[in-house]
């Protein structure tokens, strides 16, 4: 290969040129970046060497000192944002940048104004709230103390779930706030749904293209990323060897080994215990992780949609490159049981229906409209003549549903257990049902297989030290991960005390896993078990009432380093339990509510108050 160079500028040292020509390709690349940096910054250190900032370690052959540092910040609820942040960091690093990766839980917000390039990956939980780890940063950034960010360039990757009304709300707020504070948007924000991979990939390409300095190849993409808290993690490139065979895009067909109804006769609840096989999959999980499943819609709902839309189920259609009968696509590939803002919005625009458009414009009205309605309800209430293809164009691809794993692999090798409450309700005089819970309860039989993949929950896990005490609050199916926790600690012979608070309507019919708990109590694996059967007496008794009754001991255990876990209903229970804990701290410390609020905040920051709530 012949390379032609233009003549060097007059006065350039001949010897220097000869020496440069003798360097290896990698060394020349390094030098090109180094010289570019000097040229663009117009300065070099007195000894002619640019010094690397102390915050990050530059890989050897990377001209990192000459490139602006890139700070990747993530706010993660279950670990997805962290995973994306790490992938992004590895890619940015490949371009020769120094990268600092920080969990917003640990990041010193006051440093923000001195950053040059900030890439944020942030999820949204519940109804538009930031993940717990990012609560403080989010509050600070949106508050009056946030500084001007004139010298900062930024880009935001928002992770969320379209089935929530305030989809990717935290990412949207942060993106807008950076702009208001004077920061320059490097690349447009991306809002990602639960199957985020493709959207994230596109966003990363866009961000990498927009980075301000020409790319220089990094010497070693496998080198460690330096976290702001001093911990280092290996970039995903190095982890590739351990990548599981099965994931969201390629789920494992997991056979159902056992299905048991946990509630007794006469219960108003319908809770299923399912045991699935992971044999041959190579899939492994930790207590606290979730199992995601791909469910199919009930035939009755497919029929209802066909009937209300007056469409032909036998017609062959193409959806996402798949050719099949329309009826089949409706059953397998699209979400019918839940409506999202996007579906209603697109349908309102297409039908040009003023009433529906007005609903979409009014957040409160939309929230009310989405509650309990499915696709058949929308078509019935706002009928329109549309084709099979038009309808498919509006609908959301069927997302997987996640369930907290109720077993420990140590106790049940090659198995994964779930605790699932079947969701059934009447709306406008018609029966409605949750798609995945009734798929597991009604439509899938023992011996048949379910497409599954694992979701690691980075933050809802057992303490690393087996001697640490744990307090678990899990009413209803919220008890699921605590069965996994107790099984695991039992198998490991962990010396820390395990204390469970469980609640459900009735002792007789709804004491989930009663025999197992009593056995654990007898063996001492469970140190204490407190139960709240809400409807067994005139006045309701809930888990938080039991917490209040044990106030002294709870405080003592917290003071002794215990981890506190809550799983179950988010809307009311989780906040009531949190309030109860803050009352306990205020009372038992004798230092009042302000102290208790700070105490709880610190517990969360230390990841000792952990929630898995929906
Ligand atoms: P549930 O509806 O949460 O009821 C369980 C018990 O909690 C009942 O005795 C109920 O009493 C009581 N309760 C009601 N309001 C409460 C409050 N404000 N504070 C404390 N307790 C309260 O049970 P479920 O049907 O089994 O549902 C559990 C929840 O956990 C669901 O929201 C589910 O999505 C979520 N979840 C499930 C999993 C899983 O993987 N299985 C994981 C995480 C979360 P009354 O009904 O008598 O008022």
Number of helices: 22
End-to-end CA span: 61 Å
Which CATH-level-2 architecture of the largest domain? Answer: 3-Layer(aba) Sandwich
CATH class identity of the largest domain: Alpha Beta
Q: How many distinct folded domains?
A: 5
Low-confidence segments, given as residue ranges, are: 1-6, 39-62, 215-241
Cα-based radius of gyration, to the nearest Å: 28 Å
The CATH topology of the largest domain is given as: Rossmann fold
Assign a percent range to the helix content: 25-40%
Shape by Cα distribution: globular
β-strand percent reads 15-25%
SSE class: alpha/beta
Bound molecules: NADP nicotinamide-adenine-dinucleotide phosphate
What is the mean pLDDT?
Answer: 88
Looking at CATH, the homologous superfamily of the largest domain is: Flavodoxin domain
Characterize the main sheet.
8 strands, mixed
**Beta strands, count:** 23
Written description of the protein model:
By secondary structure, the chain is an alpha/beta fold. The protein has 5 domains: 9-60, no CATH class; 70-240, 3-Layer(aba) Sandwich (Rossmann fold); 252-295 and 400-455, Translation factors (Elongation Factor Tu (Ef-tu), domain 3), CATH 2.40.30; 299-389, NADPH-cytochrome p450 Reductase, Chain A, domain 3; 470-613, Nucleotide-binding domain of ferredoxin-NADP reductase (FNR) module (Rossmann fold). It is 36% helix and 19% strand. It contains 22 helices and 23 strands. Strands 1, 2, 3, 4, 5, 6, 7 and 8 form an 8-stranded mixed sheet that branches. A 6-stranded antiparallel sheet has the order 14-11-18-9-10-15, with helices on one face. Strands 21-20-19-22-23 form a 5-stranded parallel sheet, sandwiched between helices. The longest helix has 20 residues, at 570-589. The protein starts with 13 loop residues before the first helix and ends with a strand. Bound molecules: NADP nicotinamide-adenine-dinucleotide phosphate (NAP). Residues 403-404, 419-421, 475-478, 480, 503-505, 534-535, 540, 542-544, 567-569, 572-573, 576, 612-614 line the site of NADP nicotinamide-adenine-dinucleotide phosphate.
